[in-house]
Structures are given as structure tokens and as C-alpha cells.
Amino acid sequence: MEAFREICAKKLSLDNYCDMEEYIFGRVDKREMLNALSAADSPFAALYKGSYPALENAAGRWEEFENAFLKDPAYLRAESDFQLNPLEAKAIVNWVYQAYKTIGDRKDATRDSLSAISELYHVKNLDLADCVIYVKSRIEINIITSFTGFLNKIQNIDRPEHHFYYRGHSHSNYVLLPSVMRKPGWLTHERDMYNEIAIECPDEFGHCSSHLDYLVHMQHYGLPTRLLDITRNPLVALYFACEQNPKNSGEVIVFDVEDHKIKYPGSDTVSILASLAQLTHEIKTDFSSWASNPKISQADFNKKASRLLHEIRLEKPAFRDEIHKEDVKDCFFVLSAKKNNRIIKQDGAFIICGLFDEKRNPINQYRYKEKKKTQVFIVKSKAKEGILKQLDKCSINKASLFPEISDVAEFIKQKY
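^ thats the sequence. predicted structure below, dont judge the formating
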């Protein structure tokens, strides 16, 4: 069950839903999986060297595998240290699902497993919608199967004095975190990456006058940052939900944001969070601990935060000696200056993220809700190609959203 914990329970505990389409429809390529496991020198490659199991012999096959490989001294790992990596977890879950020969059987097996998943991983009130396991009391699943179906779903989204932003993921199980938080090494060396790219490519950053400017430009070129791209155009988000991963469902996330959570580039709050990128991992860890400690007063926190205050004053000499503790652990929506064509074409904005981890992720609180249920918009994999064709008719395509000549050339090449 450790494999199901990695694939399913982790996503359920963080976001209250998990899409199992890839396994139910059997879209994991067996040869690709074997090659990946072999390259990683994983004992689980043995599962993929023969045929998939049948339901009646799956338990026996697994026992044989355990006896032959997992108990071999070369692979034996202490139980306290044992942890499947994501590739191995995916391999095991797919192998088990393949024992059920039809899509209907796999859906039934998934539905039958909900009570066991609920008990094992302490996630209550589970249900299955299409291929999505979700917490029924907190989530409403909206399945998108066409361009017009998406328009029908979002056309009535409105709320006075609120603003709506959108983000598209090409894989519906993507966890909503900025890129720098997706790999421990990136987060640990955030300051190093920031400074190294600025040193190596000084001409690229000559126009930058603030930490936010630097982060936006770094994000533009794919360096991991604490920014998360969003857009004010739902069709742009729909494009990003469909452009990649044709075997997997995508997702459009709708954010419902009150006025006071929207910041401009010159905001002091934005300067605080952007300046975090220039601090060492050790200092950021201390700040996070101080900000979370109710015994540390606001005044004492600001005394401890002298290093961050110094970094902020490098770009804002008149900055007051005051940082709100709660802001350091939060996230904010930022309307970026239209300094490059990509932001203009994509009607882009950003979420700038403070010091938090995936278990205490404040971004999720801004997901759009109706009747106290978070609305999840799943774009089915089989609908992606047709939706992209409809978006192209609306001039939403790679050439329009990525106006750099290399991207335009690639778009034209793919047309023919």
C-alpha cells in the first residue's frame, strides 16, 4: 500500500482529490516503464520483464517477486528507511491495475478500494467521479469534454468585488506549488541559482531594478523561482491544460481573489517576499520558525529579521522596519509590469509565495468555491486535441502565446 500512498493518498491529503485515469485506462507504456526502471537500477524492473499478471495469479506473482528480489541482500533496505520513489510507486500501481482487464473492472476496483483508502490514510467521505477519487464533502468535480463545455462551466463564475485568475496544468495531479519548491535541492540553493544566472548572463538582467524584476525574468527563461504563473484569460489557462501530456487529463484552476490580496509590483509586501530569494536556506528556515511561533511578538520578529530588512532596503532605502509575521508565510497575487511580450500575450500575472511547504499551502484557499465546495475542472485527455483546434480558431496557440521567433517557427513547422 506504500505505492498507493505515494500516488494517491498524498494528493488526496493535500488537495482532496486524485485522478486515476492513467491507471484505469492503462496508459502507462510498458516498455518505457521497463527502460526507466532499468536505468534507475530498480528491482521493480523485474515486474515489467514478463507479461502483466491476471487477477487470479497477481498475489502469487507478487510473492514470487518479493522472495526473489526485495529480500535479496543487494536490495534489502531497513524497514524504517524504506521509501518508494515516485517512479517505483507508479510502476507498482500500474502493475496492480493491469491485473484487471477492462476499464470497467478497474473503475469498479477503484470504487471498491475507497473504504480501504479512507481507513488507511485517514481521508474521509471519498467518492469516485469518472476517474477522480475525491472528498465529497469538500470537492465538486467538473468534467470538461469539449471547448463549449468549458465555456458553459465558467460563464457564470462571478462575484462582486472579487477578481478571477486562472492556471492550466496539463496533468491533473500536478500539485499547486511554485517551481522552486518542487525539488529540495532547488529550494535549498534558491539564492545560489538566483546569483549564478545573474552573474552568467548580466546583459539579460540589465533592465531589472528589483528582486521581483529578476524573478520574473528568471521565470521567463525557466529557472525555478517562488513565482507561480497565472492568467486573467480562462482560454489561455485552457490552452496550458491541453498543450502537453496527451495521455493524461489536464486541469484548469480558478482562483477567486479579494481586492486586498492583489498587489502591484511596487508593493512593500511583494518586496518582502521577493527578497527571500536572496537569503540562505538556513536563514529562511529560521524566519519560517520565528513567523510560526506565537510566543515571538511582532516587535521581536522584526528585530530578528534584520538580514531580510537589509536586503529589502537595498532596493527600497525608505522601507520601514516592519514586516508582518503572517505575510512571510503567505502568498499574494501580483499584477506584473508588462515588460515582455509573453506576459502581454498571455495576459499574465503571478502568485508570489512566501515560506511554506506543500502541507501548509495557502494557495489552495483561493480556489474558487460554490456552496463551500472547491470547484475542480478536469479536462479529459481525449478532449485535448479537439479543444486545441477550437482555441486555434480563437488565435490561442503557441505562436500567439509564445511570440519569440523560435516558438513561432516551431508552431508553423508543426502545422505542416
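The chain has two domains: 2-137, 143-415.
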